[in-house]
Specification:
The chain is α+β, with helices and mostly antiparallel strands. It has two domains: 56 residues, no CATH class; 105 residues. It has three helices and seven strands; from the N terminus they run E-E-E-E-E-E-E-H-H-H. The strands form three sheets. Strands 2-5-4 form a three-stranded antiparallel beta sheet, with no helix packed on it. It has a two-stranded antiparallel ribbon with strand order 1-6. Helix 1 runs antiparallel to helix 2 and helix 2 packs antiparallel against helix 3.
Length: 185
């Protein structure tokens, strides 16, 4: 507070009371209400006075990490704020990144299967319409090729699903074993 006047002033400062917090300073309030602390402070003429108020609070935050939710960006932001937890969170971040990559590959393969199935259906229709024609031979070759590609895509999808299941199990094990506290002073 700055008192630019020629007379001494008594200043009343109101500080909000916070839930789950308590004052932890040598300066004690003159009054306490349900919502605030009030501090009285004398300020001499043409002088400056400081009031320091310290609070202490126990804060906690619970973050649920599930294999279906990609929380990688959040975990990386926590590591940036609290570098000391990186060694505990790094395996979790890596596991989530791997699971996201598998999910993207599975989605890509599923889209490829849909396209191949549509192409196969079109080739069957063309083959039926061109019975006995020389052009029908070309559609038979295309149909055989499409069927082979569809089988390969289905095998890849099955393999990726197995990899995904293993990645989910690994992530669940990492989540189950993760527990830490840190001081945010």
């Amino acid at each position: 507070m700055n008192n630019n006047g020629d007379d001494a002033r008594e200043v009343l400062i109101e500080h909000a009371r916070r839930t789950n917090a308590e004052l932890d300073s040598e300066t004690k309030p003159a009054e306490t209400t349900a919502t605030s602390y009030r501090f009285r402070m004398a300020v001499k003429p043409h002088e400056t006075a400081d009031l320091h108020i310290r609070e202490r609070a126990l804060l906690s935050q619970e973050i649920r990490i599930n294999p279906g939710d990609d929380r990688t960006a959040y975990l990386i932001s926590v590591v940036k704020l609290v570098p000391s937890v990186e060694e505990k969170l790094r395996p979790l971040i890596d596991a989530e990144t791997a699971l996201s990559a598998l999910n993207a590959k599975i989605e890509e393969i599923e889209q490829k299967e849909k396209t191949l199935s549509a192409d196969e259906a079109r080739d069957r229709e063309n083959l039926t319409a061109l019975k006995g024609n020389d052009a029908a031979k070309r559609f038979v070759e295309e149909l055989n090729s499409a069927e082979d590609q569809l089988q390969i895509a289905r095998k890849q999808a099955a393999d990726l699903e197995q990899q995904k299941n293993a990645a989910v199990e690994k992530l669940n094990a990492l989540i189950a074993g993760l527990s830490f506290d840190w001081d945010v002073k």
